[in-house]
Amino acid sequence: MSDGRNVAAMNKKLMKYCGSLQQLVYARPVTYKEGRAEHMNAIEAKCGDIFFHSAADKALDITDLTYKGLNMTFLAKPGLEGRNQYDTNGQEAQRSIMGGLFFTCGLENICAPCTVDGKDYPMHGRMRTTPAEHVCTDVITEGDSVRLVISGEMREAELFGENMVLRRKIESVLGENSITVTDEIENQAFRPEPLMLLYHCNMGYPFLNENCRLYVPSVKVTGREAFSEEHVEEWDRIDSPKDNEPEYVFIHDMKSDENLDTMVLVANHELNIGLAIEFNRKNLPYFMEWKSMASGDYVLGLEPSNSSVYGKLHHIEQNSVHYLEPFEKETNTLKFSVVEGREKLEEMIQKINALKAQEE
Prior knowledge:
By secondary structure, the protein is mostly beta strands. Helix content is 11%, strand content 44%. An 8-stranded antiparallel sheet has the order 9-10-11-12-23-19-18-15. A 6-stranded antiparallel sheet has the order 6-14-21-20-17-16. The N terminus is likely disordered. The longest helix has 16 residues.
């Protein structure tokens, strides 16, 4: 921790140029006033060249990301929306999926809706529409750094059922052009509970276009079904929008370093801008790619996960459901970084290639 003199020096240096530090970095609670988003609480955040919103009423998920005014994320046809009647209603839940930098799938189900022992599990689970409690925002000066912090807690619970808590912290350091998300999940029930978790990260236009390429340290890529398998050789390329084109889903067998850290990169080689996602595979051993080149549904989804894209029923059949014991905790950290410039993009691509080239 830096002493008070360093903090004062940092403030003094910046205040030579700024009337208020909010010219550079801030986190402001906001409430939307119209349409499907009416009454939704969120946090508007700026940290240097990046600007984003965290939805306090929807798990603190980040609903958008712009860099120097360039939108980098996908927003689905219904647009920005708060919690509604579609959220946990089977397949209808698809009507409430917005996209965004990421939304949280789980904690008892990911992917397709299903029914087990008479209990319904909606598409991608309930966490993504769970409102946060104990929400805090702050801008902290430490030595030569200024750090924006958003935090809160979500609970997925039922009478005589589960009692799962997700504690989330979102941080961004001025000048680094990155967002770090740290999640702690705890089972506060007195019985083992399933934990299914998928981070649904969504790239969109104008960042995402025909000039983009996806880089993943994969040793094998397979299609989820026959149609995707027919397009598996094109997993890393982004096409022009095609009317009524079906979605593809690819399953990646990817490599990581000795600490199980890994990364992926979407690079726009015309703009020389990329978005990298770094995570650890200890608790997120699965990685899926959702590629939709359909007109109006033009999106690339990148999905670190602790469970298979085939969903809850698959894991039950395979006897491979992941459980947390009573009061057991798991922690995940995802770092989203904007990479600008041809040289920096090439450095990131080389890191990914080096991971891929590692011997088993």
